[in-house]
From TrEMBL:
Residues 1-154 form the N-acetyltransferase domain. The keyword Transferase applies. The keyword Chloroplast does not apply. The lineage of its organism: Bacteria, Pseudomonadati, Pseudomonadota, Gammaproteobacteria, Vibrionales. SUPFAM superfamilies: Acyl-CoA N-acyltransferases (Nat). GO terms for molecular function: acyltransferase activity, transferring groups other than amino-acyl groups. Keywords: Transferase. This is GNAT family N-acetyltransferase.
Length: 158
């Protein structure tokens, strides 16, 4: 993500997370936290116009470690592009860039955490794409029950 992408990415955030507020400020503070926060966008060109169709936020957890534990903190896709493979593409295409950033810090990828609503169909995407499994359910955390999923020992597997 470039700083110039923030306004368009904020529109994605607003549409994907309707209970959250201050989308631009939220993304701006995450953007400013590089390299702890690594953010990538899916940009498409339509009729000579560029659109941010979605974004992904990866977070390095618990310090910069030799074996990094990442959280897939947020994955968002505009409603009109959902179900068309953008979420999977954001995960699959951003991970090599994440791993490259980790290598610059003399680190390798160990585990990936994901938390999501217990009723979110994206759990299947996280299982299929990352190999993440539900480890626990947290009752009434945000707007409903959340599940904590972990893809363990991903290393070179992903």
């Amino acid at each position: 993500m470039q700083e110039s992408d923030l306004p368009k990415a904020a529109l994605v955030h607003q549409s994907a997370f309707v209970r959250q507020r201050h989308s631009l400020e939220w993304l701006q503070c995450n953007f400013n936290a590089f390299p702890r926060y690594l953010i990538y966008v899916a940009e498409i060109e339509e009729q000579e116009k560029s659109t941010i169709a979605g974004y992904i936020i990866w977070v390095q957890k618990s310090g910069f470690r030799p074996e990094a534990v990442l959280e897939l903190e947020q994955l968002a896709v505009l409603p009109e592009y959902q179900g068309k493979g953008f979420g999977k593409a954001l995960i699959v295409e951003s991970l090599p860039m994440v791993k490259q950033q980790l290598a610059q810090q003399d680190s390798v990828l160990k585990h990936i955490l994901v938390t999501t609503r217990a009723d979110n169909f994206a759990q299947q995407l996280y299982r299929d794409t990352l190999g993440a499994q539900v480890e626990s359910t947290i009752s009434n955390l945000y707007s409903a029950d959340e599940v904590l999923m972990i893809a363990r020992n991903v290393g070179d597997r992903i």
